[in-house]
Write a structure and sequence with these properties.
The chain is mainly β. It has one domain. The chain has no helices and 24 strands. Strands 2, 4, 5, 6, 7, 8, 9, 10, 11, 12, 13, 14 and 15 form a 13-stranded antiparallel beta sheet that branches. A 9-stranded antiparallel beta sheet has the order 19-18-17-16-24-23-22-21-20, with no helix packed on it. Strand 13 and strand 14 form a beta hairpin. The two termini are 31 Å apart. Pfam families: DUF2804.
Amino acid sequence: MTNHRITTFSDLLHPGGTLMQRGYSTKAVLHYNRKAIKAAPWRIKEWDFYQISNDDYCLQLTIGHVSYAGNVSAMLIDFKNEKTYTVTDMLVLPFNRLKMPDSAEHGDLAVHRKKLDMQFEVHRGGRRLRCKTRDPKAEHNMDIDIELEQPDLESLVIATPFDDNPHHFYYNHKINCMPATGTVKIGDKTIAFEPDTAFGLLDWGRGVWPFSHEWFWGNGSTWINGKRFGFNIGFGFGNTEAATENILFYNGTSHKLNHVYVDLAAGGYMSPKTFTSDDGRFEMDFEPVFDRYTETKMLFVDNGCHQIFGRFTGKAVLDDGTVLEVKDMMAFMEHAVNNW
């Protein structure tokens, strides 16, 4: 297939509410304007999701909503002990009260709730993520302060339509390979993230989706040959005829992939898997180590997701034919079934 790369600056949506351009870019060349959406206000979905991880721990911070319901949450996953610590505050009928930024590249976001305070700050060359939880029912509350470096200019931005309705769309910006520094204080323990072993990921999403949907998404970052390496793979996010979400990053440069295939549920989610691609450029064995299963039920929302963390071993091929050997890379692949 041909992946259409968007290089021309424009609005994301026509005045009539349909996508002006379809495909992918490596910079945010499309301008998202919430007021241009031509859909019922309760169909709009917006989220900022950060993940910071190393071989032992994964921290996830989320601020998002589906208009009639919202979610602010902090989750720490301990891979070795197979435990999760979560504080979540659900929001009823938030609609546009969260004032989500119209770009992943600028605009701070802060939410103050009874159970937690969360702040995402974007500055030149990086980001700062802070959160304090105070849930009386939590096993341990958390005090989080993380700095992310953003040394690379290229990332994945994609504008994808849905076949069911011309006013449905998915606009997404994913940023890999952000070295992470900071701490999570939980109970009497302090967990440190260091930039030589920990990376941050941003998943920034805006759009109007069908009520029922299913997707597969995988992502990871690490060091290979002393250089930053990352990947994003996925399918099920609407009509991907213009471009897939599959891409490699190496030393600050993107390398576009075509289709990547895996049957994540075959043999059970925790059984070994093999990833393959139609162009032979992403060939990996996957050894799962932890299944983070979550369910969200609130008002009309009924979502379930298996996020499988594990180790990838295999090869990734860059645009110039360079073969990168990947060994025991900690990353994830997830399967989500959503009614929202």
